[in-house]
Amino acid sequence: MSIRLESDRLLLQPFRQKDAFRIRDLANDKELADILGLPHPYELKHAEDWIASQSVLIKDGNEYPLTIALKETNEIIGTITIRIDKRNRKGELGYWIGKAYTGNGFATEAVQKIIEFGFHQLKLNKIWASVLTRNSSSKLVLKNSGLQKEGTLKQNKILHNVYEDIDMYGILLSEYTKICK
Length: 181
Description:
Aminopeptidase; single chain; alpha+beta
């Protein structure tokens, strides 16, 4: 499956190996590492290894890691992924935007586009995401994209030796269909 998703301002498409330099630069941010649990410093090898694993994931239909790039310049500003649970026809969202690009609605625009892809092309029944309870920006992105909070998992994840609460968000195909009418 050839994937190239376009929104008003963004292109979502598979990574190329040469994108490793850009991902290293964007992901090498202490604040981002703290929220996502990424290694810090984020080195070129981390990005290269991650990108090298992606073609098989996409080919097998298990995961779709895509760049978030500005349509006008094709400059990568972040990444978005949907991981597929084929048996249960659901997909898990994951995304982040480089610090210099936050606050411009790019994450919401990318999330809305990947939700459309998940329901229309992948034929999923549910799309969900987990987010650190303290990550108010990401929770706002999910709410603005139509996902509803389904609950909180208390002390569900250890991140940097601290137990973190995780909020769960989701949207069903039937709910999405109503929103899009």
